[in-house]
## 1
Amino acid sequence: MILSAAHARCEQRDNRDRLVDFLVQGAGTGPGASLVASRLSNFLVRDITMALRGGWEPEEIARYVRRKTSAAATRVTAAYIGEAARHCSYLNDQESWEQQITNLIADSQRLDCNLPSWRTDVDASISALGVLQHLSKMPDLSSIRQARRKARSQEEERLLARVRALLAKAESSEFPEEADALMAKAQQLMTGHCLDRALLENDGGDSGEGSQVDARRCWLDDPYIEAKGFLLHVVAKANRCKAVLSTSIGFVTIVGHPDDLDASELLFTSLLVQATRRMTAAPADPAHSSRSRRPAYRRSFLVAYATRIGTRLDEANSSATAQAAAANGRDLLPVLAQRDDDVDHAVHKLFGKLGGQSLAASDPAGWVAGTAAADMADLVVQEEIDYKSVS
């Protein structure tokens, strides 16, 4: 009965509500409610365990259930993730899982037929099972990790803190020119740091821990997942990473060296905030305001924004690479080429042969506005801007 209710919607049957009502009532027997709670709990643990063994992270399971169902279904799912994870103790980085599970348990609700929320919890559990039983297997990101990444040094933490501060100031700035200059400065700092790390590892000055290629999944929210994924692609490319979009589930896997992944995630988050703010800003012309809310306009805006941002980041990286080469007195191209080969090998190991994806931009006004939003100022960082306040 539980499984029939869980699959009723995907099988386009109209008896789901009747089945849920019957289960809520304890399947018509005295001790039935406790039995229903026990069976639902067992199913949740079983299906979550299968998902974890299939490459899903604890937080990813909760996120996907929330995307497909409701907050109530997510709370019920989160309550059993810790129990399921104990069946997968041989998987992944346990410290990472423990932190994720701790975060999830803070907002969870275990099944209890004596609670006032019993009806809501049964319905939520059925919805969650309907999602969990259709999860596809994920690529095992741990398969390309050679060793655990070593802890960042105090110097690296200070640099990341400065980059975050620059990006936060860019996000909050009301002046596009200042925001773009701050973004460029952040990119230059991260590029210089990553190039220094690449040279250190290539010279054998690093212990080897943390130098290997890694992969992360970045989840995107509706709407315009493809356009947002394209923005992440151009940011990842500028930081010597590769991005693989999984449209049906709603995330992008980025593959690269750890420092390059850090740079990609930080910059993408900031750029998406800035793009959203500029895209949704109310224009002075009421007629344009109505048009700017249309999906075609906003999709075209984001595609154009990403296209121009990609060009500008490439220019910033070329300048930073030339400066690093001059400072170190050596050609960086062989070192970077080897890192590119390592990333390509890891992508092939995870995904095999991949195809490309094209994006249409059908609204000319959206394209022009998106390009303008990404091209407000020169990429040259103005020295007179006072960065000490965000150091």
## 2
Amino acid sequence: MDTTDSELVARVLGGESERFHDLVNRHTGPLWSTIRGSVSNVEDAREILQETWMRAFERLDRLREPGRLRSWLLSISLNLVRQRHRRRGVVEAEPNEGLDRFPDEAREGAAERAEQKDEVESMRRRIAGLPPRQRQVLDLRLNHELSHAEIASVLGISAESSRANYYQAVRKLRSADDSPTTEKR
């Protein structure tokens, strides 16, 4: 039976600090995807991920709702991203070619894989072209399956703003699919 985040947090706080590695293993992939989608430099992303985990370990006893660990970790990492952008004078998060949340259908034929790769790359470019807030909301909704209330909490916006940004992102992606100028290979 899988141990929940709440159980792992309780065990870490109860003195089993080695269980923190289970949390790191469970959440690093999704955190990396979100951080990497928000900064253009891989080294910056690595530093932000490391700092996220250091802060989480140091402040774990302040987590009021252990069942919302993922939202809390995302809040820490996105706050660090915003701080990095402010220090460097970045107005908006730069698009990132490293959005790697798409499946690799290795069992299909080479021609089908090539076509899928083209479609995935096209989708990555369209997602990277979205405004930063829409990209963040889309990522948190689709990749992390957060509710609009949770997204609002993570990003410091209203749930209505989250819904609006999600709607606009989906609308833009769909209109790009329907556009006669969309690349078809």
## 3
Amino acid sequence: MKPLFLIPLLAVLPQLLSQPVFTDVFPPEEYATRRARVMEKIGGGVAILQGTTERPGEQPLRQSNQFFYLTGVVEPRAMLILDGRTKRSNLFLNPRNERRENMMYGPGLYPGPAAAAATGIDEVLARDQFRTTLAELARENREIYTIFRPEVLGSASSSDPAALARNTREDPWDGRMSREQAFVEKLKVAAPTSSIKDLDPILDTLRGTKSPREIAIVREATRIAGLGIMEAMRDCRPGMYEYELQASAEYVFKKNGAYGAAYFALIGTGQNTFYTHYHRNTAKIRDGDLVQFDYAPDYKNYVSDVTRVFPANGKFTKRQREHYSIYLLLYRALMTSIKVHVAPRDIIKVAVVKMDAILASFPFSDDHIRQAAIKFVDNYRKSRANSLGHSIGMEVHDVRSPTAALEPGQLFTIEPGMQLPDEHEGIRLEDVILITETGYENLSAFVPIEIADIEKLMTEPGLGDPREKLKLPKR
């Protein structure tokens, strides 16, 4: 006789095998470890989170980052309760909707033992039971932690939906509060004697240092980003449009299993390279232009962020070589100064000394380039004296580092720019840095950055080249 708890699981097993209903990004124990750490942080309180809603149109569902971080569940309007006292987790899901299943998604994740077994969550209940459970918790007058910050989905960082929510709230012709604010107000009514606290700082601290499995996902996202940039280099020809290069990279992203883009494509050519986050991508690429290409995928809810610069016609001019060469020397002076257990401000102090020596010995032939290089170094001496770049993870501008010094497991990018204002042009490279026990690893180092390597790569056939069928590199 089969154990009773196996009967519901066996009933849906054929569907589970034919189309997985739980993400395979991490095993259930990875999420369980994260939930356990949250329950430890909240003491005798409870954490209550709501997942994202259905999409407003024909769009694939992507879970919000904070909810996904703790569950891996991608179902609309899911709810999660973590009990710091009992150390148990409850997930609340909508019941099976056969029409939705047959028309849209195939099998979903539904209340019951099968979902608990798949997710590693203690109990998975029907969503309409959430009200009763909350009422029971409210009688205990316990602290309730929930998400205050607007949810982050794809192609965004936390500052983006936060700014949108603020502008919406302050708009005299709108004035709506965010979904998260509305949920906090609902909790206050349902549990009037409980204090409602912000869960985001606890989750941000945990997310700031990546686990080995998270690092592996970002490593793969970076590999895909690099392959996309390299394909754009191969494909680039004067007369193309910026959006055509975007298409080259997007093909590689989807070919390698990306959900979509980590952020809008930043592909600037000629004078558009002056703008740090230029993303119109509508200009025609001219012979003699430099191309600044900054684009990466959203891969299994994690992202990368890599930038390269290359000549539209495949050959740097003499002046472009001078501009790019001094920039690259200064860029590498910064990168080679990175050390584990050292604060960014102290790393920059060391880098500036190296940069000053480079400026003193570089054979400048163009005073505009020399002045741009001096300004670049002075920026690190003054306005950028404490900042190496931005962290990455589930968001392209991810949660801040939880420590003052760089510690193992932290991921960030460096992306300093050097501009020629009079000519409205600039150069900006970007690499993904992983802090390790012994120093750092450049995850994007395989993407050509030396002039000779870039020019060599650009002689190879690309997606639009009829001479040879494209063969993508294997994993």
